[in-house]
Each structure stands twice: as C-alpha cells, then as structure tokens.
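Dear colleague,

Thank you for sharing your sequence with our group. We've completed the structure prediction you requested, and as agreed, I am returning the results in plain text so they can be pasted directly into your records. Please verify that the sequence below matches your submission; if there's any discrepancy, let me know and we will rerun it promptly.
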Amino acid sequence: GAGADNDLYINQAIVFIEDAIQYRSINHRVDSKSLWLYRWYYSRTCQWILSLTITIILALAFIEKPSSLTVTSDVRYRLPAWNPPCGLTESIELLCFLVFMVDVSVKSYLVGWEEFWKNKWLMAYILTLIVSLTDWIVSLSFLCTENVRIRRILRPFFLLQNSSMMKKTLKSINSTLPEMASVVLLLAVHLSLFTMFAMLLFARTKDGQQDKEWMVYFRNLPDSLTSLLVLLTTANNPDVMIPAYSKNRAYSIFFILFTVLGNLFLMNLLTAIIYNQFRGYLLKSVQSSLFRRRLGIRAAFEVLSSLKEAPANAQQSYVNTGALQQVLQKVEMDSRCKQAIMRSLKMCSCDQLSVAQFQKLFEELDKDAIRQHPPSPDYQSRFMQKIQFAFGHPYFGYLGNVVALANIVSICVVLVMDADKQPSERDDFFLGAINCFFILYYLLEMLLKILAMGLKRYLSYPSNRFDGLLTVILLVLEIATFAVYGFPHPGWRPEFIGLLSLWDMVRLVNMLIVFRFLRIIPNMKFMALVVTTLLDLVKNLRAFAGILVVVFYAFAITGIMLFKGAVISVYIKKVVFSFKGKCGFMDLFGYFQADVTYCLLYLLSLNLICRWAKIYFVAWWLISSVIWVNLFVALLLENFIHKWDRRCHREPLSDVEYQRTVELMFRDVLEEPTEEELMEKLHQHPHLQLCR
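Please find the predicted structure tokens below.
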C-alpha cells in the first residue's frame, strides 16, 4: 500500500543521506530488509566488532612462535618468550575468520551479484580468506610445527580492505608509481656509473697494505654496488671513505660528488615529483568522494519526491519539509550538522523544497567544524569585574609563561650544579623549595583563571585542560612528598621510604614541570601553526598510517620467516667490535624487527649478509624510506601550505576553533558535479528505479 511505499522511501532517504555523510557508494540493495541489514552492518557496534577482530588477528604475531614479546631485547638477559600451546592462537584465528566470513557475505549480498563481479576488493577478500583457511588447516595437520605460514603475511589485507580512505590512498600511490619509477631509474643509472668509477679508482694494487678500500668495500661488482647504495642512505658515512681518505685526501672528491648528486639533487627531485603527482591523484580521489556525497543527497531527494503526499508537478519535483524532518530525526550524523540543518529548515517559510534548496541545506556537511567557547561569567560587582579583567587578560597568561620559564631555568641550574655529585652528597632542599613555590603559583594561577573565565570556558580550551591537569598532578605529588618525607629543610636527604625515593619523587615532579612548559605553544603563532599541522596529520591522515602499518607488518613477518636464526655466533663475533656503538647491537640479534633499518644497512656495507637477502633489504629501503617517507613529506607540505594560506586570508578569532578533514583541505579547488552527471549516475543504479 501507499503507507508501506512511503516507509520504504523514508528508509531509503535515511540510508542515502548516511552514505553521503560517510562518502559511501549508494550502489547497494534498497529493499526494506536489505536497508535494515545495511544500517545494522554500518552501525557502531558492528564496525567496532570488526575493528576489534582486525586488531586481534594482527596482534597474534606478538605471541605466536617465534615470539619476541619480552621485557628486554638483550639476548644475554632476556628470559625465553612464552610460546602458546598448539591450538590456542589457531582457535582465536578461526573466530576471526568466522567474523570475516560474515563480513564478506553481508557485503557481497548488499552490493548484489552484478556489482560483486565488478568489485575487485571483494573478490580479493574472498581469495585471501580461502588461502588463509587452507593454510590454517595445513598448520593444524602439522601440529603447528611448520615454519612458513602464508596467512600471517596476508593478515594486513583485512585492515586494508576495511578502510575506503586507505583504498583510495593505495590507488593514488599505484597511479604515482610510473612517475616515481623514472626518478628511481635515474638513481639506478647514477649508482651504476659511480660503481664503475669506484671499481676503477679503488682497484687492487701490488701493495696489500694500501688496498683496504678495495678489500672491505669495492672487492667486486655486487660489493661495490652495495657499498654505494648504503652510502646513498648515509648509513655507512663516513666509514666507507675512511681507508681511501687516509691514503689520499683527493679521494674524498669522489664521495662528495656521489653524495651531492644522489642525496641533494636526485632524492629531493624524487620528493618534488611525488608531491606534485600524488597531490594530483589524491585530489582526484577527493573529487570522487565529493561526487559520492552529492549523489547520495540527490538520491535522497529523488526518493523523497516520490512520496504520495509530495505535490505532483510534471516540470519539477519537490520534497515535503515534514518528510525531511522525519528523515533527519532518524539519520545518524554529527549533532552540530543536524542542528544546523534543522535550524535552516525551520527558518524556511515554504512547505516544499526544490532540488536546489534541498542540496543547499546539506552544504552544512562541507563546512568547517566550528566550536564556540562558552561566555565568561557576567559579574555584577565592580571589584569582581576588575578581577575578571586582570586575570582574564592575555598578559596574565604571558606572566605565567615567564614564571614557567624561570622554573625551567632554576631546575637546569640545580641539575648542572649536582651533575657530578653522589646521591649521598646531594642536598634536595633548594630544588624541593623552588618546586613548592612554583607549584603553589601554578595552583593560584589556575584558580584565578577559573574565577575570571568560568569553569566551562576554562575547560573549553585544550591548553587550559593540559595546564590544569598537570597542575593537579603536581599538587598531588607535592602533597605526597611532604606527607612521606616532611617539608624541605637544609640537608634534606631522607632514607628511602615507600614506593619511590625522595629523589625519584623530585625527578618525577621536575619532568612534569618541564612537560608543562609546552603551554607556551598556543601563544607563539608560528609554533602553534606547526603543531596544529602535525595534530591534523595525526587525526585526519589515519589512512596513511594504516598503510604504513600494513607495510611494516608484511615486511616484519617476511623477515621473521626468512631470517629466523640466520645471524649465527660467527657473525656476532665478526661484527661486535665494529658494530657496537653504531646502533643497538643486541636489538639486531634477537628476532628480526622492522625498526633496525639503519643497523641492517650498516651490515650490508660490511658484506656480512647473504647476497640474495640484500634484495629484501633494498626493497624495504625503497618502499619505506624512499617512497613512503617522501609521500609523508608531500602530505605534510600540502597540509602546512593549506593552513598557511588560510592563516594569511582569515583573521584569527580567539573564541572560535576550526577543524578540517582531509576532504576539506581540497574543498576550494574541487568542482561541483553537474545535474546531468548526477542523474545519469542515478539512472545507472542497479537496484533503484526512479519515477522520472
């Protein structure tokens, strides 16, 4: 009946608007049962369960054999790692696989059979599950004694396929590879030419004592190529040139030319190309996200215009405002946006909305998130008004910064004076006394600011919350110190009592005081700009961090399988003297870890690693250091330039905070889709039949 159709249209509009908010595709089933399943799948509970499952299956590598989950990485002192019994981690894996099977089944059903065959990610998802389950069965049949587990390398795929932004980022990286390959090829030519020159310059001579450079670094073509490749990373600089430089200073010209051309020119050229190309492809990706949002909003308009109570008009469609209000009540969206749209809807005097009015309402989704700080208290007393003016003035904050700087300087002076003293000779009276004075000032400053600004306004500023939290912690620690050790006095060196000694308590207080000095950042505009840029990267570019986790995880698991037990005692004896002090020696000779790139490159320069293994380390260097670091630099530059331009064109407002997503970074240069493009895409929807 008409009522059932209207309910269906309302539910379709709700889902389409939620798709638009999350930049999701609307190409899914739109019948009543499918819409219920769709909303259930994208509910917070289901997505939380899926995220938890992905986290658990990735974390299994920390306890699976071979496990390196110990307190210390030093093989001389660490206890044997705990190895779970066969079947424990496999049972957890099976539960995770069951969740993933439900996940892929629901996704496949919702998109429909026709769309399923077009979706490469879903097909890869199913293939990954089949391979993982097969490997899981093989593992159990061998009673968990097999050394190679293919499914461990495939685990990062579950993280990758669950994020649409990570997929877009990966697609952008893939599109940028041809341009990056040209510079990498130029680097290879540069490396090959200088390798030939090196083999000619440092050829073997009759005098064996003068052939140290040839013997250690340039004995043959593979060793020469490896030495210069490691020099390109600066991991063996200046060790690689010391023997030749000791023989003749003129040899340094060769190494200087190689480093200048490779590091200063070619590597920076690679950064410039990656920045230019990747920004373009990321812009295209964000453009497609904008198209998805506009398409979702337009689809919601079309289904709402099909309601029975909607006015019939052959020329133009309209949406009833009451129906839209009913939809907005059920839509899961940010409360700020919902309130703004409802306000605009109530201000509209008409009962029907045209397509232009409908789309204009939802432009609120594209605006910066603006948060107003609560107003200050309105005191009636003249005296309180003067107090509020004095302690709410920015100069009072500047005074607090000066006091904090004086506190840091006094701590530095005491630490320098007591640096060479034994604990028994140290007098903690002066440091304890000045800490007591400054903490009391911090407490007084916090209370006066709360009095002037009001508690709600005070807590609305992140810098004040940071400042106040540390002040409370410092006060609690100081009270605990006085309760245990008494008040400071000359010769204040009591014996150890309780959990922490007096010196430990004083050191903890001083570390927090030093950390508290970061409060000056909001008062220094340029420093605040840099810090907010970094914070925005942390908040908005989680997709890039996710891909970084995928790369690290895959290489770490591969390294464990390839090099477990490969570093034997002969190599340890051979490199312990030359390697000690270069990097964490004992970190290398535990199980392979992905954070020892420098150490591994140094070993490469000493030619102590199997030649075939060099392929693995060079691939790791290319992907992690050359490609990924440059991508991160490109995004950092884009975010910083964007914030700098906005800083130059907009006056800062003290009571307003702006928060932008990565999509809004490019909002000024994006093109709005045309009416024809939207309607053409809607008519191609595999499950939605429009009335016109």
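Summary note from our side: DSSP finds 30 helices and four strands in the chain.

Kind regards,
the structure core
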